[in-house]
Specification:
Layout: E1 2-8, E2 12-18, E3 24-31, H1 36-50, E4 54-61, E5 65-66, E6 71-72, E7 84-85, H2 86-91, E8 98-102, H3 103-114, E9 123-128, E10 132-138, E11 141-143, E12 157-158, E13 166-167, H4 169-172, H5 174-185, H6 192-200, H7 205-229, E14 233-237, H8 244-260, H9 262-267, E15 272-275, H10 282-299
Amino acid sequence: MDYLSIDIGGSSVKFGLINGSGNLVEIWKRETPESLEELQAMLQSEIEEKSDIIKGIAMSIPGKINSRNGYIHTAGAIPYLYDFSMKEWVSSFTELPFVTINDGKAAALAEWWIGNLKDIENGAAIVLGSDVGCGLIVNNQLLQGPNYQAGEVSYLIRNPNRHDSQLFDNQASAVVFMKRASDILGVSKYDYQTIFYAIVNHESKELDELFTAYCRDIASLINNLQVTLDLEKIVIGGGISNQKIVTQTIKEEYYKLRQEHGLLEKTFQPIAIEECKFHNSSNLLGALYQLFIEIDARSL
């Protein structure tokens, strides 16, 4: 039997049937509903439809998530999930084992389990989506923090000495970037092919500058995480990471930052930067790995 993993995002809800070795058997996606009642109807329908062929349910959600009791304190761009006990609700109609975890932390777990952070003792996954998700592996374990908010880099303050200071995700959100890029080209914000074709072929100076600034922000984040936590490797995930030029340009901007600040080059070895192995499927796999961790803990 397989497991059902669910990744709830601001624009879509992804579902995956995954076996115990982490192989995706089937994956499908639906648009994120506009109300809690609609989301509950969707989730219950999918879970009950698969209940005879699964032996556990895992869920990834943005925001402050207590993975021990399944309580959602905040949920990023999904306001109707704030202050909601997902575990209590799921347990009201199924006895299957269930766990929920923050999406950035799920991505880090997936890559640490069977992805590009495997065998890394200190690393991170950065997920570029509606917000900027981040999961931290420190001393060979996931760092959640006493309030389950370790790695909430979306709330870093940019330009603190200016009157127009912003939170980091106002600039580094992939969704915000795609909207700005689409406005420049006059196309849909979902038209990845046209937008990245224009970037690769340098069809718009304004778009080139926007993209470089976006990647530089992520490169700056990588540098700050490295010098704070002494990380070995960082992987980049989220749907936008499917475009090879994204990680490539982030790496280029990271090395430019090091060159511009010579003390960085003298003091710190360059960190390894790669794409997530599983890209936007990392959240599905990592949520499942958290379920395995909790099942193992219960059996002790």
